[in-house]
């Protein structure tokens, strides 16, 4: 599903190159649940953002479902991301002035899904995540755990082939964190490929494989 070949990421400042990723080679099969671990500053989030097409490598090749991502224009990448990838952020990234219902509906609007189908998908998702009672609330009226639940629901409402999660339980208590991780496990069993960045050994163990990064390299 995913192949990275010789991926480098650097920033240039006053003629000095600062490397974030160095010569990363990676293959991820469809249906895997992969955890990326490593100390702060090891390049984990940058790698995840490149996989999610939210950032570009400075050098190297990225293939997603046999598509050469590194050769695509911005518009084509946006389409690919929109149609196949869900992203869960540590800080939820919900839209503050939209209700829970409207936050869930947003990715469906981007995909130009017609009204009747949108209503049905949002209703099903509210049911599945047991947040029907919260549908008219705004993010600031929810607890951290509830906000992250909505974040995950929004990421998967379009049935993405790939779910990327950046420290998804970082702001949650242990019970809320377990709820999110159990949900990921269930989604993975249903066929969603998941790649998560985590500091937690416990969360990493939910995955079928752990990739360790150190100073921008896979170790």
Describe this protein's structure.
The protein is globular, with a radius of gyration of 18 Å. The longest helix has 16 residues, at 174-189. Helix content is 35%, strand content 27%. It has one domain: P-loop containing nucleotide triphosphate hydrolases (Rossmann fold, 3-Layer(aba) Sandwich), CATH 3.40.50. The protein has seven helices and ten strands. It is α/β, with parallel strands linked by helices and 219 residues long.
How would you summarize what this structure contains?
It contains seven helices and ten strands.
Q: What would the average pLDDT be, to the nearest integer?
A: 94
Number of helices: 7
Number of strands: 10
According to CATH, the fold-level topology is Rossmann fold
Proportion in helices? 25-40%
Helix-strand topology string = EEEHEEHEHHHEHEHEE
List the helices and strands and how they pair.
Layout: E1 2-13, E2 16-28, E3 33-37, H1 44-51, E4 59-64, E5 67-68, H2 74-84, E6 85-88, H3 100-110, H4 115-128, H5 144-156, E7 162-166, H6 174-189, E8 193-197, H7 201-204, E9 209-214, E10 217-218
Parallel strand pairs: 3-8, 3-9, 6-7, 7-8
Antiparallel strand pairs: 1-2, 1-4, 4-5, 9-10
Helix pairs in contact: 3-4, 3-5
């Amino acid at each position: 599903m995913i192949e990275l070949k010789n991926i480098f990421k650097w920033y240039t400042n006053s003629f000095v190159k600062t490397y974030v990723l160095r010569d990363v080679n990676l293959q991820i099969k469809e249906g895997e649940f992969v955890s990326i671990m490593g100390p702060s500053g090891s390049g984990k989030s940058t790698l995840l953002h490149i996989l999610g097409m939210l950032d570009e490598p400075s050098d190297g090749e990225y293939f997603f479902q046999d598509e050469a991502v590194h050769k695509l224009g911005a518009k084509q990448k946006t389409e690919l991301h929109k149609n196949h990838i869900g992203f869960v952020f540590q800080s939820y990234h919900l839209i503050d002035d939209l209700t829970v219902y409207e936050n869930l509906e947003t990715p469906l609007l981007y995909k130009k899904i017609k009204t009747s189908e949108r209503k049905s998908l949002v209703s099903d998702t509210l049911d599945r995540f047991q947040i029907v009672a919260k549908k008219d609330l705004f993010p600031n009226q929810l607890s951290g755990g509830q906000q992250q639940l909505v974040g995950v629901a929004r990421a998967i409402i379009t049935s993405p082939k790939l779910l990327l999660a950046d420290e998804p339980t970082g702001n949650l208590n242990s019970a809320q964190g377990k709820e999110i991780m159990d949900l990921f496990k269930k989604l993975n069993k249903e066929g969603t490929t998941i790649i998560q960045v985590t500091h937690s050994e416990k969360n990493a163990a939910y995955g079928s494989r752990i990739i360790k990064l150190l100073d921008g390299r896979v170790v």
